[in-house]
Design brief:
Strand order of the largest sheet of chain B: 7-8-9-3-10-11
Number of helices of chain A: 10
Helix content of chain B: 25-40%
Shape of chain B: globular
Oligomer: heterodimer
Structural class of chain A: mainly alpha
Largest interface: A-B, 23 and 32 residues
Low-confidence stretches of chain B: none
Strand content of chain B: 25-35%
Helix content of chain A: over 70%
Mean pLDDT of chain B: 91
Radius of gyration of chain A: 22 Å
Number of strands of chain B: 11
Structural class of chain B: alpha/beta
Mean pLDDT of chain A: 90
Shape of chain A: flat
Radius of gyration of chain B: 18 Å
Amino acid sequence: MLQGFFALFNFRDALDYLPALLQGALVSIEMTVCVMALSLVFGLVVALARLARLRAVRLAAGFYVEVVRGTPAMLQLFYIYFVLPALGVNIPPFGAGVVALTVNYAAYLSEVYRAGIQAVSRGQVEAALALGMSRTLRMRLVILPQAIRIVVPPLGNYFISLFKDTALASTITVKELIFSGQIIAATNFQYFTIFTIAGAIYLALSYPGSLGVQFLERRMRVGYRRRAAVVGAAPALLT
Amino acid sequence: MIRLERVNKSFGHLRVLREVSLEVKKGEVVCVIGPSGAGKSTLLRCINHLESVDSGTIYLDDQPVYRFTRDGKVTTDPERRIEALRCEVGMVFQSFNLFPHLTALENIMLAPMHVRREPREAARVNALALLAKVGLSDKVDAYPQELSGGQQQRVAIARALAMRPQAMLFDEVTSALDPELIGEVLRVMRQLAAEGMTMLIVTHEMGFARDVADRVIFMADGVVVEEGPPEVIFTRPRHERTRQFLQSILDRGA
């Protein structure tokens, strides 16, 4: 097995492939950041819409989430890149990838937000009610600040999985990491070497991300404390 | 100040309040006692409309605030009016319900700033004064999680007072506390009573009720069984049900 690896992995050329692959990785990262920033906002909007007072708004938001969850992300991507131009909407590949993945992730993130909002205890809502707060104030001052904190670790996980899902954009000619690899491999058939490097790059970028999520989960468990108190509490946590 | 007229409330088939009528006058301290399941907490929650009533009327300052009738003729006041009413009636919960993401001071300042639209500085000055009043000047920047139950409950009382309510509702505010922490909370409530705050208190602390209450109401099975001055209710209750309840409390203490 290991022998096979060394036989197939072309060390000599690996360094030559690296610049193009890293360039591709940069595009993957750019797309991840754009999509995450947009879907963090739209996901929250959709979550609030699903909890809205107006039934029509709730139904519309629910319909959107179910359509997105019930169809493949790749189909959504193709729809935006190949079908929309027929309707006169032309989006360049990178933009189409960002739009499609945002449509997709906003739906999933809205469910995360919704779970977070509903996880805030009834007692908190009642305390806010008893202080005369309107629906908007309750959401803004009491529920969301707590819900956001609850959803940070799961959002982090989606962030990591989004990074890997940007590979889908290779199908619409975005020169991200996978497609960059395919371009090289198409000329020299060094699939093994190229995709091993690509995999290593994905892993090298994802793994610190999941360590970060684990850190956030631990921070969550500590709860709300003063900074000084958190530092003071740290030794106790280690034991 | 607060008046209930023939209020009924059911959860499914369970009738929690049956034809409950009562009144709390301005400056009066009324304690509600009774076995669990008597409807005491529901009574308080109906007064500031955390629960809707099935029928009957609740008046605040002689203004009927909310009406909900069984026969399908439903007239509810707009939410804004209910929110305005809740500003006038402070509530303290058994489980404190402080906002965990805010410090003690921020907990107290939040509603005055955003609901009453007080300027930040004014809200801060008032919040500091209230923290001093409940004896927690040294916990201004502490988060609820860093406070004992008794301290949390005192912050919760200060938070309710910060809205400058005309009356306060206390829902078994010492029931979740360790015995040694009950005294500090009751002390704050005694002080409030002495200052003339209108208070409706659901409690299991009979000694406290006897000392502080102007009037005691005994409830069982959703009905007001009897009411009167504490010295009458505690020493010579008229109803057998009241006697039984007080006896069971005594037995538990023994």
